[in-house]
Amino acid sequence: QQQVKQSPQSLIVQKGGIPIINCAYENTAFDYFPWYQQFPGKGPALLIAIRPDVSEKKEGRFTISFNKSAKQFSLHIMDSQPGDSATYFCAASYNTDKLIFGTGTRLQVFP
Amino acid sequence: NAGVTQTPKFQVLKTGQSMTLQCAQDMNHEYMSWYRQDPGMGLRLIHYSVGAGITDQGEVPNGYNVSRSTTEDFPLRLLSAAPSQTSVYFCASSYGLGSSTDTQYFGPGTRLTVL
Which residue, B97, B27, B41, B82, is CA-closest to A87? Predict the structure, then answer.
């Protein structure tokens, strides 16, 4: 059972564009929503995370928007750069702390 | 700190062979876990451990065994490899389960091919 649905599967933007990756979840008990970034040949690394008591969180060019009533959250990358080309995973967890990952979005940013 | 290390980086097995994927961390993390990554499937939890001597199953545990004799090491054993176990395997660790905001640190992965 896929508890975190992520879209799109792949995304191509030009430098300076604002790619948006969306995730939807089913379990209302989830209380932690991180995004991980993975470069080819590397393990995922935490990029940014949010808890459901806030609707938005920004860290540099990366922003998470959170809609609790719709059970959706999204990652926005402002002024995207070729160095942002990577696979992005959303995830969710609840009290047991087992992370449930989305299926990933491969982002390519062209100069 | 080396962080989370995994060996080997690449491995090719024949169906039915056994092997152990090694994982070690030097951050004194209590929580360690194994994931497999397959195209279009994301990261799926195989087994996890909340401390030395304690392990539990994740989403896809069949065909894999784990043990946790020390805080630092968390090996993953394939008893009889099958082509369906061809995947990239990641080990991860974090401070614990006390807070759901504990960051998980991932190793570089082991790419396994079963022929």
Answer: B41
- Averages of pLDDT over runs of 10 residues in chain A (111 residues) are 87 98 94 93 94 93 96 98 97 79 96 94
Q: Which residue out of A30, A31, A98, A106 would a mutagenesis test of the B interface target, given it has the greatest number of B Cβ atoms within 10 Å? A: A98
- Whole-number Å distance between alpha carbons of A50 and A55: 8
Inform me whether the pLDDT recorded for B115 exceeds 60.
yes
Distance CA B90, CA B108 (A): 7
Alpha-carbon gap: B81 to the closest alpha carbon of chain A (Å): 23
Query: Rounded to 5 degrees, what are φ and ψ at B44?
Result: -120, 135
Nearest to A36 by CA among A82, A93, A79: A93
Q: Which residues pair with B35 in a beta bridge?
A: B45, B90
Taking the CA atoms of B71, B88, B36 and A47 in sequence, report the sign of the dihedral they define: positive
Q: Which chain A residue has the Cα nearest residue B33?
A: A98
Distance from C-alpha of A60 to C-alpha of B87, rounded to nearest angstrom: 34
Tell me how many degrees the CA angle A98-A45-A2 measures, rounded to the nearest 5.
40
Give the C-alpha separation, B42 to A69, whole Å: 25
- Tokens representing A52 are 């459901």
d(CA A25, CA A9): 16
Residue B49, both tokens: 């451990």
